[in-house]
Amino acid sequence: MPRPSSAALVAAALLAALLLSPAQAATDINVGELSVDGLVVRELKCSLNSGGFMGPITVVGALAQQRGTIDACTPTGGAFRATWTWAAGKVVSLKVDASSPADKAGCFEKALQAASPSLDGSCSALVLAGDAAGAEKAAAALKPPPP
Prior knowledge:
Structural class: alpha+beta
Number of strands: 5
Radius of gyration: 20 Å
Shape: globular
Distance between the termini: 65 Å
């Protein structure tokens, strides 16, 4: 039986490595509205290091882990427009760009800091909290997202 050439062996090794290693391509997402476990998130925009088409669900799922704490910030309803960066399962930067009511931004920041995401990347979103009708009114009162 003939022996394979070294070029054929190299090609086979490269193909195996490509097929067996997970892709590490960045994933950019833009979702109008998504709800996970009752937490409503709108205007979700992210640039993630992984996640693919499951990225939006994974992001909102990580936020939804803190739904009780987020809702406790504004039981009668509120909305928070925020940007954040996750790395190594932690929030490494977070800014609440707008909050309704305005005095609850710190409470929301604290709740989001406790999230434990499985993805790395940066996101921005409008997060609704508390009573649904109150959250709708609060969201309508917020300024538009930054360009």
